[in-house]
Design brief:
Length: 417
């Protein structure tokens, strides 16, 4: 989709500097903003100064952990960036001098707008004390919060949290819970009975443990993807000294979210998850993964053999490890074993980064060959137990037809493809 009139490519590239950038979304976002070259530049801290002062780039963004590191190497720093104490965008002025700006401020404002949340007269708790925290603190003060408390992610002890039980808005600016260390949270929400909103600047995974906990409690919440897109849009305006349409922010955010989420298929054994999964992968150009196949490959034995020789408990542990590994990735089509979603620890692993389809098929049409539980248990009773779990995890339900093309069409409609 062509979102805007795109600037002509500069002679020198734009890009992002940081320490570890392998899973950055920035090149994808900037590719949707314009047709300029945007690179990733990983480096050690001692390399930052020489690179910033070199003439090999046109403009750049700066991410963890160098937002403060770059500041001594700049000729000019915007008042906003100086007040915040960190720089995430560097441009060359016409006379060749280097200017530092902070577009994260604008990005976080858009994040608040995305949640339709005002901080005015609210008691706000900010987790984390790094560069992102400094930006969020500035916005929080400017938005008129009645109280702002800042706690390091290393100081989230029960004694500390007990002092902030009246918190109304919780904002995580720390990297706790970020890929690849999914599934951990910087703080338990049990401490905060009055929460009106939870914001996590992490965008990978789409739903951190913190956001999943908020969802379970019915608390409005949002991840940091809209902030990332918004700050990139503002940075691009600085790169090229030209305005970009504000409609880019929701359009690009939605597209990145759709492209990066996994498509996970759940349902009873034999409901057609693998068949539909392969068809969806072929249709969308995604890689297909089957958690049952992963278990077999890891152990080197068939599933009936694992059940017979090691028991279901052993199988479920191996299955959980496989679910955790594959569901932390992005942009895949994943078929799960019929019993995987029923294991309590797997539900959040499946939901953290995915759109989930529940496939329904009449019980009498479910095959049982090679499926130990299907052969040893009453399928109707099994379905009765599992259906509420499947429905609690899924984003949509689809009826499976004997004609794969009909089932595929239903899946495409449910996914908006």
């Amino acid at each position: 989709m062509d979102y805007t009139t795109k600037p002509c490519p500069p002679v020198k590239p734009c890009g992002l500097i940081g320490h570890k950038l392998g899973h950055s979304y920035s090149p994808i976002i900037h590719a949707k903003l314009g047709n300029y070259e945007y690179r990733l530049w990983e480096m050690e801290e001692e390399e930052v100064g020489a690179f910033v002062r070199s003439d090999t780039w046109r403009a750049m963004n700066v991410t963890i952990p160098y937002k403060k590191t770059v500041m001594p190497f700049l000729d000019e720093i915007s008042p906003e960036a100086r007040r915040i104490g960190s720089v995430n965008t560097i441009t060359r002025l016409p006379d060749g001098r280097l200017r530092g700006d902070n577009t994260d401020y604008y990005g976080f404002l858009q994040m608040l707008e995305g949640l339709h949340l005002s901080l005015k007269d609210k008691k706000v708790l900010i987790i984390g004390a790094g560069g992102a925290s400094a930006t969020v603190q500035a916005v929080t003060m400017d938005q008129g919060a009645s109280e702002m408390r800042v706690v390091s992610s290393k100081d989230n002890t029960p004694e500390t949290m007990a002092r902030y039980t009246d918190t109304q808005v919780l904002i995580n600016t720390s990297p706790v819970g970020m890929y690849p260390k999914n599934g951990v949270t910087p703080v338990s929400l049990d401490y905060f009975p009055h929460l009106e909103g939870v914001l996590d600047v992490i965008y990978n995974p789409a739903k951190t443990r913190l956001l999943l906990d908020a969802e379970e409690r019915g608390i409005p919440c949002i991840n940091g993807l809209v902030m990332l897109v918004a700050q990139a849009k503002r940075a691009a305006e600085l790169f090229f000294d030209t305005p970009f349409d504000d409609s880019l922010i929701p359009a690009v955010t939605e597209q990145i979210d759709l492209d990066s989420r996994n498509i996970v298929l759940i349902g009873m054994p034999g409901s057609g998850k693998s068949t539909l999964g392969r068809a969806l992968a072929s249709l969308t150009g995604r890689v297909f993964a089957d958690t049952d196949d992963m278990v077999v490959e890891r152990v080197g034995r068939s599933i009936p053999a694992i059940f017979a020789e090691d028991g279901e408990k052993c199988f479920r542990q191996i299955e959980k490890d496989c679910v955790a590994k594959i569901c932390a990735e992005h942009g895949l089509v994943i078929a799960t074993g019929g019993g995987a979603p029923v294991q309590p620890e797997n539900g959040d692993l499946i939901r953290q980064n995915s759109r989930v389809l529940y496939l329904r098929r009449p019980t009498e049409a479910l095959p049982t060959d090679g499926r130990p539980l299907s052969r040893s248990q009453n399928l109707s009773e099994m379905e009765k137990v599992r259906t509420p779990v499947y429905r609690s995890l899924c984003d949509a339900e689809i009826e499976v037809d004997d004609d794969i093309n009909i089932t595929l069409a239903r899946a495409k409609e449910a996914l908006g493809l």
